[in-house]
Each structure stands twice: as structure tokens, then as C-alpha cells.
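Extended Data, panel c. Modelled sequence:
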Amino acid sequence: QVQLVESGGGLVQPGGSLRLSCAASGFAFSRYAICWYRQAPGKERELVALITSTLVSTTYADSVKGRFTISRDNAKNMVYLQMNNLKPEDTAVYYCYARVHSGYWGQGTQVTVSS
């Protein structure tokens, strides 16, 4: 079955960096777009970044452009989100999402940006 497992979250000071990872299994990974979403307390889940399959093009939310970078390694079935210059408003649970059939979510990883 489809599985997405996020890792790499944690507590970081403002201006710091984190790298999130998403390990995928159970589907033809290289054929599908993968997204990172986030959900802050009391807010709706929002799209942070997307990376397409073969063309490997990317899309970012305006709030993270220039700070976050999404990438993928199709040989390892992995997607990454490099987050630099983190701000307190980046605090959220970050989810990996695969655009496979009806869509699949990972369990999420907590990112907290605080001094």
C-alpha cells in the first residue's frame, strides 16, 4: 500500500534551517507529483511546495519563495524540503502528499521556530 513517512522536524531558532524528508513506498514514485503542505494551529492546511514528476518543475507558496527548496531523488523514492531563514510563522505540522489516485498523506512532522 502507499506509504509516506516524514522526518526531520524539530525546534529551531528564527533564522535557522531544517531539512525535511519524505520516504515514499507502494507506488511508482517517479510518475507522480509530490507536495509538502503545512498546518498551523487554528489554521487550514496550506500548500507549501510542489514538485512534478518527469519534468521536475517546482511551485512554491509566496510566503516561502526564496527560502524553501523542494527536491526529489527518484532512485531513492525520496522528497526533501530544505527550509532556510525560518520564521516563527513557519511553525506548523508539515505533511508530505502524493498525487496518487485519490491522494495520500503522511503522518506529518512538527516544525517549531522559536527563540
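The mean pLDDT is 96. This feature is highlighted in the accompanying rendering.
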